[in-house]
């Protein structure tokens, strides 16, 4: 008999304190952004850019992720529900759940385009190549948060590592959230290792393209192990997550190819400013 893993974690960190509704998902979500800001600050210091700009990127990222992910869920998964007079106001009720990673990715790409327009020394692709490193780590944390919430579960499975989500239905299932979380952690180390080796000499668009291919390519694979999120996906050969991943992978291949052309030459490395990134007292 297989010894399945019983998963009965309370989504709230302090369930006995009713006035302190702190959830593991929210903590992990925030932790991903905070560590990401620290990583970007280190990258900026290495490349003689203002370390303080990492805080500005954090603001762009948080707003873009929440808005993009929410609108992505509304448009891609449940437009018939939300675009009705009775439920339209629920579009703004993010705390009730319903975020789509594809929408979050689109939101981040658009937000950083506007960020880069205000900073000529930080081209759009230059920023994207660096931001995807902490974004991959944030994806690891967010998917682990889904596991803590017992949501986005896998299909029923008879494997030794299957999880029984007692807060859901007590059926042994693939821990699809864990599959994705560990995948994104591995992608974080791959991207970080490439950047550590090439740094400022990295052709523009290469890491961004690789991120799209790896993240959404693996997302396409893991969707085969996950339950469909909405009813209309039943009977589809590929679900919505897979259909949205295809153009992302193709876009990634384009940026990888582009990184081999002269147009992808890295921007000039700025001269070191002795006053830059100094602590102000």
TrEMBL record:
A 1,2-diacyl-sn-glycero-3-phospho-(1'-sn-glycerol) binds at residue 143. The keyword Transmembrane helix applies. It is an enzyme of class 2 (transferase). Pathway: Protein modification; lipoprotein biosynthesis (diacylglyceryl transfer). It holds the Pfam family LGT. The chain crosses the membrane at residues 24-45, 57-77, 97-115, 127-145, 176-195, 207-225, 240-257. The keyword Nucleotidyltransferase does not apply. It is found in: Cell membrane. One of its GO terms (biological process) is lipoprotein biosynthetic process. Keywords: Cell membrane, Membrane, Transferase, Transmembrane, Transmembrane helix. Catalyzes the transfer of the diacylglyceryl group from phosphatidylglycerol to the sulfhydryl group of the N-terminal cysteine of a prolipoprotein, the first step in the formation of mature lipoproteins. Belongs to the Lgt family. This is Phosphatidylglycerol--prolipoprotein diacylglyceryl transferase.
